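Quick question, first post here. What does this chain look like in 3D?
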Amino acid sequence: MEFEVVNILYYCGMILLSTKLMGMLMRKLGLPQVAGMIIAGLLIGPAVFSQLGLGAFRGLVTPSPVEMDVLKSLSQIGVVFILFSSGLETGLQDLKTSGAAASAVALAGVLVPVALGTGGALLFMGGNITEGKFMNAVFVGMILAATSVGITVETLRELGKLNTKVGTTVLSAAIIDDVLGIILLSVVTSIGGGGNISVTLLKALGFFVFTIGLGIILRIFFKNLEEKYPGTRRIGIFALAMCFFYAFCAEKLFGIASITGAYMAGLMISGLSDTKLIDRKVVISGYMIFTPIFFAYIGISADFSHFRVSELIFALVFVSLGIIGKISGCSLTAKCFRYSNRESLTIGCGMIARGEVALAIYATGQGLILYEGNKLVGIDPLVPTILLIVITSVLCPILLKLVFKNQKSAG
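> Answer (accepted):
Ran it through. Tokens below.
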């Protein structure tokens, strides 16, 4: 089937319409909109309909291989937008003032869930542990590293606890958590692609020296720009250009995931007077077209032809490990820094929510899923990731409210 631009126009229209409608439905149900966008992709694509035996009808969006490549390219731009926005919202000052406790909590919030997820994946794959199986398992564990700071922040703000010692620790730890997770993902994907560990670490070091060094210069440039032309469109355009160049250099020059470059670009110009303006323009540009395509593409490209009941069981185990890993790792670490039992539990519960970054990690590391020919012999964590986002997004505010309610009762 030949590539036709007019088909892409139809696919984009269907994706934007379906993702918006499903996103609105999820919001009414109190669930994260991103989950609705992925479900929209599943409903309009061939993943579900091809399993129903409806003859020639395989879905409302059935791209040819070439057209899928076009949608994939658009989706990759979407994930770059997401990570650039995350970097802009992080704030260099937050990282500077986070303190040892938040840094340690973040480190535990990455290492413990990743270790549990990796171990769980290896047990489910069984048999001889080959290098391919091990890297697939590490990738599965990596998805558990991310924390969705947005849900936690809104809950703490609603409870009036955002500016407390615990609230500040959770916020700072969640920010550092994502930074560590993205860095670790870059190293893992590089090694999984056949890279040498020492060379990979040297490249990673070189990447951060390059991005920070250039970022300092560009930060001065943006400060001068916003002084002379405050609030102008050129600032947003230059910022996006920086984002794309950072993403390109990360992958092409250093073998680091492009999303890491996008995140670093946002981080280097965060905290400026016009940062909120830049972020607003990025969010509008991304969520108008590229970001919905990213989420929908995950659903459209899903393949359930080899789906087994055991995979659903693993999905539930995966979610459980993700919740247990965050609560135990973060709570015990907080306890080591002389937080009370209740404060430590609050920090652990505040770190369990997952969102867009978990999906970005899934999309970036898909090459580590183990296949033999066209047969899946490893674990494709798409369904577990969707369940993780939905369940933790609902559970996080419930647990936080219960902890603070019990705190008041005890007082």
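The chain has a mean pLDDT of 85.
The chain is about 75% helix and 0% strand.
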